Amino acid sequence: MTKVLISGASIAGPTLAYWLDRYGFEVTVVERADGFRRGGQAIDVRGSALGVAERMGVLDQIRAHATNLRGMSIVDGEGNEVHRSEERTLSGGPLDSPDVEILRDDLSKIILAATGDGVEYVFGDSVAHIEDGPDGARVTFEKGEPRTFDVVVGADGVRSTTRRLVFGPDAGYTPILSTAVAVWTMPNVLGLDRWQIGCFTGPGGSTGAMVMTVRDNTELRAYAMFTDPGAVVPRDVEEQKRLVAAGLEGAGWEIPRLVEHMWDAPDFHFDALAQIHLDRWSKGRVVLLGDAGYCGSPASGQGTSMAMVGAYVLAGELKAAGGDHGKAFAVYEDDLREWVKANQAFALRDVPPTDSADIAEWMGEAGAALEGDFAVMTNAITLKDY
After folding, report:
1. Is the pTM of this model over 0.70?
2. Which of 2, 17, 257, 265 could cysteine-pair with 184, CB 3.0–4.6 Å?
3. Do the Cβ atoms of 243 and 181 come closer than 8 Å?
């Protein structure tokens, strides 16, 4: 029985674990967090990823947890509405599409539950060292005893420890537009009803915030973005919050109020906007999956879908190759690389304009013009029957 270690228990890792377990592999998932991680942004399950969810038997659950927004507004710094739509949103796109916008923690919880009892989860630990050899990869953990696996999968995000250990400290990390993003949960102090509001002011229209209602209007997810966060993202959360507050200073509208709630938010996530570009996604017995190997950034709108489709393909190719990791990794990358490149390129096309006065025009023209291409791209992977 092929033993597989997966580092990361958000979306990509558990999706891979689901399929590997059903194909007869012995699967262990290690996660740095002490337990299930709550919070996070709204994410999208689109195109071919909907097919993966359907084959997993979780698509109905995913649809039942959709954000179900009615529309969106764009306001200026004084709160005046300059654009309104009941046909699309900033975060989810067209409301009449089959795609599903869902909170990250809701999707993660659904997939984790679907993996069942056959998968071993180890929370509160992480990979510290990997020694690849002809008979297996010897993995040293931060806390647990060393173990040997036939395959190691890094599904641990854009700041992947697995990628750093195997490919080098800065391998593939490519910042985009010197922009930082943050997200946190707060009460629905604006009294919104299944609605989303964005306000983008400051130099180039690249500084601002967006809020959207979640959890039956009881909560807001607040998103912030600003430029020039610095060359190094601080690890200290309080320092990250100070950067956000400084970056949003003078942004207008209700943004100061959002920042007030940020300080005591039950969850908070901050990072620079970046992509991962690597010549290879595998080395020896180690392979990267999702954001760890080919992050498209939130600007792509496809991170979750790439993770789910990538997991399905990787598991299927490991099954098809009878556990021959070298053969499986080669087909996995060959099947997905061009699609991944298209998603990453789209992220750079789907960046807001440099002039805040063009926001309404951008929403009405650029988004609509790209919509057809985007739909084709999200459905470009035909799922094999493994």
Report:
1. yes
2. 265
3. no
3-class secondary-structure state, position 326: helix
Neighbours of 145 (CB within 10 A): 6
- Is 70 exceeded by the pLDDT of residue 369? no
Question: What is residue 120's DSSP assignment?
Answer: E
Please tell me the predicted confidence (pLDDT) of residue 346: 76
- Token digits of residue 121: 């989860």
Closest-CA residue to 73 (of 279, 211, 221, 220) = 211
**Residues 221, 180, 263, 75: is their CA dihedral positive or negative?**
negative
User: What contacts 1, CB < 8 A, 6 or more positions away?
Assistant: 24, 25, 26
Residue written as tokens 């970046």? 274
The 10s digit of each residue's pLDDT in 216-242 is 999 999 999 887 766 577 789 999 999
Spatial separation of the C-alpha atoms in residues 212 and 25, rounded to whole Å: 40
CA angle 270, 271, 275 (to 5 degrees): 150
Strand-pair category, 219-227 with 173-187:
antiparallel
Q: Is 16 helix (H, G, I), strand (E, B) or coil?
A: helix
Dist CA 79 CA 258 (whole Å)? 14
Task: Map tokens 């915030």 to a residue.
Answer: 209
- Give the pLDDT score at 37: 80
